[in-house]
Design goal:
Two copies of one chain form a homodimer. Helix content of chain A is about 35%, strand content about 20%. The first copy, chain A, is of the alpha/beta class. In chain A, the strands form three sheets. Chain A has a seven-stranded mixed sheet, sandwiched between helices. Chain A has a four-stranded parallel sheet with strand order 7-8-6-11, with helices on both faces. In chain A, helix 4 packs across helix 5. Chain A is elongated and about 70 Å long. The two termini of chain A are about 40 Å apart.
């Protein structure tokens, strides 16, 4: 046990929101309230942008019931940011932390955020300022290394599987070829989760394309036609990012028309166009699941909610014990029954790394996901009891009680 | 009370599916089971396409628990069709009904379907075949005349409001201009329902554009910028169909690029493009709510579910009493508390008519919906207790027990 380090803490949220990222925030706050060495509990508005501008909300000023309501609200209650951190940013961040006697920093985010955490921890050490930085994992994409799965993924996976199951029935009614685009620029974890919707023979998804499976336009058109001829309909799930046989992203470069104009509307629109051109007699439609994948709170997973709270809580607990420059992880300790515990990994192990869908989950035909993937994903999407007694979900916002600034303003 | 007409009944489902259209089916079937004059209970596969091909499923062969499970399943359990009915179709339909001693026909659909019902009823009368035809209203668009609202609308409205409330929080995190496209080629009922999400000052939707409000590109760009400057973000809800000041649909004709190519991706993509061009420094995103609006079962409305069952039930009850050539309606008999009863209207009154969002609900600024609309829509989206204890919704299909064909095959 390291010696007691007294001071204030800052918590921030970064990158794309999830349905459960406020549970990590509230888990961290509630744990912080238990530790005498922690004085002020500050929330950075819009992640590091708020640190740079000294925009801190007072998280001790939030009533307990409000914190619980915020935990149940999707997206980042503190706001978020996509900010490429530069050297001068880092210096300012450490300066702000010194000015506010911030001795603990917790950042909830993906691999870019974990890199930033590591850089902050390093710089604080270099300038001789004692502080502890612990990363809290978060991403719907499920692409962080060193974890079994990422908080945020299970709920998004549950939304996608539910959406595909519902779209399946609509498709069965009117029988077009229907292309459903899931998030995932680099990895197929989210598209793969749609496999959960296939519960009876003939159920969608009939085909699944991920960035891990080299994509061929000719093969795609053959696949779709075969499925359509067999079922009289087809539901095809794709990741928003797909790669060709040379592992090159199929993107704007191929999605241009004859005049060199970039095709708008993304991957699903591109596939609709080539399918319509190949089979003009068949109706082709598409759905892009969009922002709802990470915000549609009715699809929150119980497992995901509990674990998201836990990683926030454990980050603070470990930091109070002396941990610095680490990220909290999730480790599956048992498959049947599903058991998962938190662990720790050095931030440098996570920074800028991408964990792909393992190839043993990709079908040899490159157009589907193996059933063995269900063992992995099923426990992550467990439902929760939720009485939908009002027409709309109850959503909450933090009370905007601000901490006074201490430094001269910068732009 | 008309004399008892003994024979078989056919029920069919037509047009775009809804979350609750199987409740109308099951309501009709369960009522039919109570009437001795009704013998066979046949479901036409894919609406009138199934009648033309004599593809009838035996609805008496379905276990009661299965019917209940089907009622809870979105989309059309019998399949659906979009078929422009021609004269020779009508003759074949009446011939099939005669061959199968079908004395009752119930068609669940929108205004095209009600027209077809009327034509079938007329032709049967002309050829001296005694039968009763009753239409059952259904459409997410809420555009049927002679009803207070359409079965299917409340659940779609609830989905849209929920989706916009969730997207709002995501938008608040990353603060782009975000365009959300709801269904509604001709009417703004669905887009207008997003107003339910605006529960606190600053909540989305910040702007709502419907086909009933003449759309001006210049005005739109001004509106969006003003909102963005005020809130640092913007959530804009639009109907998929918008009309210009000459009441002309803004469609492919204006959505072409400089080389005359039709802009792909629909209205939201077109608005993203003009907004990005006008304000290149602001991030612009879009969500098209797509098929989920009519199929995402977790958003089913309790009111909508109950009323959808009721209209199916009442259609059969009225037909057994002698009603022919009518559609069942929903009439609101009290605003506070909300009360609604069924009624009847001649099919000719409904056929091919479109009920627009009344102009008193459209804000004079043409970019919003008046608060008075909430009185209308709120009771329609009431939630229901639904324990989401499994990861995915339970969905059911009818047992494929077919009725033998009686006529020579036609193509």
């Amino acid at each position: 046990m390291a010696e007691t380090l007294k001071g204030n803490i800052v918590i921030g949220q970064s990158g794309g929101p999830t349905m459960v990222v406020n549970l990590s925030l509230v888990g961290a706050v509630k744990e912080a309230l238990q530790h005498e060495q922690i004085q002020g509990i500050y929330g950075a508005l819009c992640g590091l942008e708020g640190v740079l501008k000294e925009e801190f909300i007072d998280l001790r000023a939030q009533p307990a019931e409000l914190l619980d309501a915020v935990a149940d609200t999707p997206s980042t209650a503190l706001g978020s940011v996509r900010l490429k951190i530069r050297e001068e940013h880092l210096e300012r961040i450490v300066l702000v932390f010194q000015a506010h006697n911030v001795r603990y920093f917790f950042y909830i985010g993906g691999n870019d955020s974990q890199l930033t955490c590591h850089q902050i921890s390093q710089l604080a050490h270099e300038v001789g300022y004692e502080m502890r930085v612990v990363g809290i994992p978060k991403t719907v994409d499920n692409d962080l290394v060193e974890v079994d799965h990422c908080p945020g993924y299970g709920s998004a996976a549950r939304f996608i599987a539910t959406a595909v199951a519902c779209i399946d029935r609509d498709n069965e009614a009117l029988r077009p070829i229907q292309i459903v685009e899931a998030m995932g620029r680099d990895t197929g974890w989210l598209a793969a989760a749609s496999l959960l919707a296939r519960r009876e023979p003939g159920d969608a998804p009939h085909l699944i394309y991920t960035p891990e499976a080299p994509f061929s336009e000719a093969k795609f058109l053959e696949d779709v036609k075969r499925v359509y001829d067999e079922y009289g309909r087809a539901v095809v799930v794709i990741s928003e990012g797909l790669r060709d046989e040379q592992c090159k992203q199929i993107s704007a470069s191929t999605q241009v028309d004859a005049f060199g104009h970039v095709q708008l509307g993304g991957m699903h629109q591109y596939l609709v166009t080539i399918t319509e051109n190949a089979y003009p007699q068949i109706k082709v439609r598409s759905d892009r699941l969009g922002t709802l994948q990470r915000s549609f709170i009715y699809c929150r997973s119980k497992t995901d909610a509990e674990e998201s709270y836990l990683v926030g809580q454990m980050a603070v607990r470990h930091a109070c014990e002396g941990v610095n420059d680490y990220m909290v992880t999730l480790e599956r300790t048992s498959m049947h029954p599903y058991k998962c515990e938190t662990g720790l990994t050095p931030l440098v192990n996570v920074a800028e790394q991408t964990r792909h869908l393992p190839l043993h989950y990709v079908s040899p035909t490159l157009n589907d996901v193996e059933e063995s993937f269900l063992d992995y994903v099923q426990p992550l999407v467990e439902g929760e009891e939720r009485t939908l007694d009002s027409g709309l979900p109850r959503l909450a916002r933090l009370k905007p009680v601000m901490i006074p600034k201490k430094l001269p303003h910068i732009d």
